[in-house]
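Checked the freezer inventory, then went back to the computational side. Two predictions to log before the end of the day. The first one is the construct we discussed on Monday; recording sequence and tokens without edits.
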Amino acid sequence: MSSRSATAPPSPALVVGGTGMLSGTVQALADQGCTTAVLARRPGPPARTGPVVAVPVDYTDPAALKDALFKAVRDTGRFRLAVLWVHTPAQASAYGVIAQALTDDALVVEVLGSAAAAPSAPPATAPAPFHGHRYRRVVLGFADGDDGTTRWLSHREISEGVTAALRTPEDLRIIGRVRPWTDRPRT
């Protein structure tokens, strides 16, 4: 029997955006012994513990992304988990490259801004490169502030919410709240 618990995340994992708001998720994965590749334009400080591989690359450059990802795959193997915070203009090209670095049974967790929950947002579906993979969405909402207004979520709240989403089978998890839409922070 493995020494890892039944709820341990699949390894290896890829986290895009793991040096900023998802740094706590990277640390949680590393703490559980998950080999985690962190893709970022500007590598941040390494995780305090655990096997973390820095993948310094700008995901808006598909050729550089492919080269960097496949160098990481040589070190870690294909990714069984991908946690993706990728801005909309680059999603189509970046997702196509990322999908090539995943195992067939990979879990893809796409982290999206609150606009994905807007009343006018199109229905949710997995992006084409991830059809056939297990797919979940995490939508970042907002929280109530101490002064009666609303505020955007902190990095800690985001990381804790995304990490919790990795442990549950929900296809959609909203961190914070998104209703009523008119309460959304203006800044």
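The second is the one RB wanted added to the comparison set:
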Amino acid sequence: MIRRRTALSVSAAALLAASPLLAACGSASHPGAAAVVDGDRITVSELQSQVEAVREAQRGSAQPAQLIQDSGQLSRATLSSMIFDRILDRAAADAGVSVSRSDVQKAQATAERQAGGADRLREQWLQQYAIAPGQVEAAIRNQVAMDKLAQSLGADRSSPQGVQKLVDALSEASTKLGVDVNPRYGTWDSKKVQLGNAKTPWLRPTPTEPAQA
């Protein structure tokens, strides 16, 4: 069990539909903010820090040019993921779901074993999902939260109905929190629980599982 499942998984870093890193300026109502969720600012500097962590890891990889090219829209995707993480936390809390340190450790041990070791897991996630090594634990925590949320809702993640039940819960949490995104990065879609036209980051296979048609 790791961050992305064939049926449904989360974002700690959504990847493939975003725009290049943008200038460090906020909206008129929230200077310096990339987005505001439930009144809390996600600053441009926080966003850039996460993006740069990925870029640094990519530059140190065996195929830096290819990885950077494949994640050329990383900035918006990362912001989408950061917003989604907060929405997932709210949906989990609303459902009475909590994630312990032990839960994360067990899930990470399983993920590393499936990948062939901790280093291999970090390599896979960097290559396939633009997740920096330091972001892996947070991504796994989100997967555990998603698993527990699905269980609490009685949502079968292998069925369209189960997926929709999860989307509905996340959409409700998104609406409650209120998401205000700096126009430079697009607009938040609470129904789809994603930033603009970004591809849903939690509908991708895990690095150790083959994609299904």
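For RB: The helical segments are 44-59, 64-70, 74-94, 101-115, 118-129, 136-153, 160-177. The beta strands are 33-37, 40-43, 179-181, 188-189, 194-195. Let me know if you want it refolded.
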